[in-house]
């Protein structure tokens, strides 16, 4: 048994003390100024300990990962969907695929409740729920030839609960993809800088893919340097383009962006993973992580003060202008991806298990990537909490509440207890070269303001506008990588569903099947996006209100499948590892679903909102956000659809949980009746490290393998 040496003990003691100090300051501060650096300290200390001890315990003791077992990428390698991928590239792909709009936007909106509730949920939630879900789903999918979440539910829970899971996951997937695409369109519309820079990542990624596959196989460090250099050039050139005669070429209308995005999603879904998807995600990860690391360093250097209250009055009253509802359950729903996300389970049972080289890498890729995403959420919350609260609420409250002038906005925000002058509101917009910052809802502009605040403190106030527009473009790049991977995963899910009816679809690399299903998935989210772009209250805008709830309902499906598999595979004593997060997520999300359907507050309840607007129609009145009687009828339709869909999805998830419970109880009572669809053991021929950096033992194993290969080669020549 290995014992820790004194140096290791000292290092981890210091890490624990840093994290504890951060939590202590955040928890005990009352009324005095608190530096945002303490949030960073609490997060990093907690992440480090969780990864080193809890994740390692789950991987080695609970899952019992086997480095000698061949993964689907090795056994089924076909160069299209199954392809053993270097762990560093795959880490980049997985992180880029899971890190969409949620960790950037959700925490910004949740800052309405204060910085403390969001900080606690983001950090504690990811350690014990989000990262655990991602790693366990990835492990079990890898053991099952990369099966999708819905198909695993069907095979392990049964046809009834499995059918509910398949239907729920696919519907939710289309909603999530449509919402992600809408955020990208809003960020890139009329932005030549962002459009050019993001477009350039595609040829750069293709170059990287061919470089690793054909020109210099295995030279990850070389291709990384080339890719980063080209990416930085694309970012700089984007600003040149925006200020040149080419600006009109890259200034695209929302409808044009929709067409390009659907075309890109289709192509990325059918091309081999090594050619575009993996290298593009890996490339974007450098920018994502680089920006977040620079933000953290900026916080440590400038030590900005948290200006938002630790806990605001809106947390208890539930009448916040950013989103309605009390702290429980809606702060957990709003933060979503930063702590726990069902979308991640789709990636962990989609592209990643078909590319992972070794089972031992699930800890780094599954658990580690989710910690990286959570750090993004923490930095987003920091960015929202260091700006003037008056500016925060003026940016995130709808125009129907605060009006469209700085004078009205100042008065309304002041009535909430947050004072900001009209001059300060006008000056904030002028500093970032915007005509107005009022009602810039959605979270992204607020994050950009916070980012510009931190970076300009380091580089000088003259670059504030540059950093603001850089952050807007950064967010679009951040989200686009989730869209392309998500489209491919949606194709896998649809192929699994159709494979239950027509067997050829079960071969996910069957070309007619992959083309047909890719077109269907792109057509579905593309339709909702197209309508949403042309009708402010239609299309994906109609489904936007259920984005957070549907994502967390999907997490309940994933955790139910994980718990069932832990029980059926002889790990009953460890079932609490996913069972406890499942109980919490189900309680929170089903409570939120109930309130969204049946609440008597029209700002919360869909059916109550429908009633209020229908009554107004009967009286001939027009209520905001509607601007005409046609809009009033659209709101009534949207409220009805959202209420019914929320109820149906919640019911499907209850069916999955109940059926999973039945299967678990039956297994405990009569284990002989249970069957597992795990793929047979095949010995692995691949030698690859489990972590980012190889251990001494792994280096020695690689040296022995190289020496053996050389000796065999020499013997063959003789």
Detailed description of the structure:
With 718 residues, the chain is mainly α. It is 71% helix and 0% strand. It has 29 helices and no strands. It has helices at 6-28, 37-63, 72-75, 87-98, 102-110, 115-142, 149-156, 159-188, 192-215, 220-242, 254-270, 277-302, 314-317, 327-335, 342-348, 362-385, 389-396, 399-402, 406-415, 422-431, 444-459, 464-499, 511-534, 540-543, 547-568, 576-598, 606-619, 629-669, 696-717. The mean pLDDT is 90.
Spell out the key features of this protein.
718 residues; mainly alpha; 0% strand
**H-E order:** HHHHHHHHHHHHHHHHHHHHHHHHHHHHH
What structural class do you assign from the helix and strand content? mainly alpha
The major pleated sheet works out as: none
Specify the helix fraction band.
Answer: over 70%
C-alpha-based Rg, rounded? 25 Å
The amount of beta strand, in percent, is under 5%
The quaternary organization reads as single chain
Distance linking N and C termini? 45 Å
What layout of secondary structure does this protein have?
Layout: H1 6-28, H2 37-63, H3 72-75, H4 87-98, H5 102-110, H6 115-142, H7 149-156, H8 159-188, H9 192-215, H10 220-242, H11 254-270, H12 277-302, H13 314-317, H14 327-335, H15 342-348, H16 362-385, H17 389-396, H18 399-402, H19 406-415, H20 422-431, H21 444-459, H22 464-499, H23 511-534, H24 540-543, H25 547-568, H26 576-598, H27 606-619, H28 629-669, H29 696-717
